[in-house]
Each structure stands twice: as C-alpha cells, then as structure tokens.
Amino acid sequence: MAKYITLPDGTTFELIGNKFPQSCTNDPNTTTPPTSKNNYFTFNDNSKYTVIPHACIYPHKITFYNEIEGLFHERHKFSFEEKTKIRGKLSLQAKSKLDKAINWLVYLSKRKKVIIKSLEKTIHFKVNFITLSLPASQIKSITSKTGTKFAEKDWKNIWFLVNSGCADVEFWHDDNTIKKECLNHFLIELRNKYKVKFYVWKAETQLNGNIHFHFTLDKFIWQEDLRNTWNRIIDKLGYVRRYQAKFKHYDFNLYKKEFLRSSGLTVKKLLGRFETSKRNNWLDPNSTDIHAVKNITNLAAYLCKYMKKNDLFRRQIHGNLWYCSESLSKFDKLNIIDSSTEGAELNKLWNLHPKKQFVKDFICMLKIPIWVIRKFMKNSKILSLFDTYVSNINNELNLNWNNCS
Known about the structure:
With 405 residues, the chain is of the alpha+beta class. The protein is 36% helix and 21% strand. Strands 3, 4, 5, 16, 17 and 18 form a six-stranded antiparallel beta sheet that branches. α4 packs across α5 and α7 packs across α8. It is globular, with a radius of gyration of 26 Å.
C-alpha cells in the first residue's frame, strides 16, 4: 500500500524506497534499535528532510515513530475499515482507545484493603469488574417484514434478521433511552456517592436482546449496595415492577425451567435464590454481578480481552458502545523526543526484549509494561519523566476534584 506525506503547502508526495531506519520497516530480521538516527528522508523529487525519532510511553507498551521535520503524515482517506464500518461493532481505533483506557485505569488503581465489619472480613482488591443488567425484557416484540411475529423463545436465533434489517424490533425502551435515563444516573451516583474517579464501561447485548453494561472501576462497592442502587434506578422505567408482575405467580418448577440452564447454578442454589426472591416479594431482582478478578495474573490484559470482544450474532447496540470517565481520559501518553540519555535507555530495553518487538508500517512497538522498566532500570530517566507526567495530571485532577466537592 502506498504511503504519503503532505507538505505544509498542501503538496502530497508518495514515499519511495525504504528510507526509514531499519527498525521502523517491515524487515523481521532487523536488530537495529528503534531510536537509531537516519538523518534524512529522500522524496521522489530528491529533496531531503531531517528525521526526528520519537518514543511514546504508555503503562503497557512503548511505541516508536519518526517525525519528518516540517512535514506531517496524511491519513489514508480510503481506509477499508472506514468504508466497512459496522454499527454495533468496535472498530480497530475504538479497540485501541479502549485498550489504552483500561491499561491506564489498572495502572492508576492502587491495591486497597477494605474491612467489612458485619462479616468480620478483610478484602484486598485493585479494581472492581461488575455487570449491570435488566431483570425484565427490553423488547416488546419482533416482527418480520412479511408481518410474522416471532415468539420470545425464538428471539435468540433471529438476531441476524434484525441486524440485516429483515425484521423490526419494538422496544419498551431503546438503548439510548436506557443509557440516558439509567446509565447516566448510575454514573452520577458513582461520582457523588462512591467518589469514583476512574471507570470504563462497555455496552453489550444478551441473547434475549437486552442491553447490559460491563464496568471496570477503581472503588470497592458492596454487592448489596450496588444491586439496591441499580434496581432503584432502572425501576424509574418500570423494570423491577415488570419483573415482579412476571414472577410473583411462579412456583419453583417454573422458576427452575426459566433459569437453571442460563444461570449455571445448581438446583440447591437456585432454590435458595427463589426463596429469597419470594421473601422480598420479587422486588429485589439479581440485576448485578461482581466478577472475581483478584487471582488473575495479567489483570489489564484479561479486562481488555473481555471488554473488546465483538459478537455480531447478537442484537447490535444503538449509540455509544463504550466510554471512560473524564478524569481517566486526561491520561494519554508520555511523548519523548530522542536524546542521548533517553535514547540509550530505549535502545537497551529494545535489545533486552526481542520477543516483545512488533513492527508495522512506520511504527515499532515494544509490548512491555512499565513495571518491567522499573525492574530492569533503576534510576531511569524515562521512569522519572513518566512519573512526573502522571503526577502532574493527578495533581490537576485532585485540584479540580476538590473544587467540585
């Protein structure tokens, strides 16, 4: 694929030959460090420009690229992905941004100790990973273009018809209404009641067509508080009352038939849940879930894999698929222009981790987390710059947070 550079006057040149430093090419056999200097880049009109090496430091990787002084790259206008963008699917760019947000959240979240006095129990954790769902159906009916109305038990097998426009869905409330009335309300309570500063959410759909939300956040929330808060919020739209109306006449056999396979619970545990719901007059549905992540070694990689998945065989989401807190969005990357000290450290890291090197187009990547740099490089200039970058943003956020409190 041809590569292009645009001059300040608007003239576009096609790059010819292989003029970038070897490590920033697609040559898999290169061992040249990414910050090696190649003083000039030659264009097809024989003009020469100075090359400035850059390194971008993230919590989970380092990327290298070369800037040509006085020029800028023109993005390819006819990207295949842009032309084939699918509603309800995360694009590669969105996945990259989501990946960055989650890695920053995990890096910024410190290990905490929570004492639960009622249970005489101490919990150690770093981040919370929770799911919020709807206890009653979001969808009223699904009808084909020929007028056939599908039975609710068949919905899980016909989402391809809905996604391709061959069937119409009638909602109690569409996705954007639920995000506006319920999700936004929940986010306000996260910030005001639980003092949550960093969070990421991702919307998905279940097999029954209901929207649900995965959350990663930096604060501990007791499971009963979480469920009570979410149930109170979604009952503004009547979801708890409709749940009660459906199940208050159920006996255990009907309840077991409804949930045994989908819940993954044993009959004994399902019976306990049924009796608890009955005692609460079916007004306390199990609409939230807290996932155990404390024993996962690479927490950020696990969360990224879980939240970046695309399932095109389920109903496509309308509107935003994910978002992160404004505080978290302030953290981007530390951009270093190569100098002798930083360049020597980066070259050392590059040579120490040949299996973590990735090269694509004009960018090199070293997929090592920041703690690896701390392990191999004491008193590192890169670490000092990175810590200063994080500290400055945190100080600004704390100042703004205190002013708003």
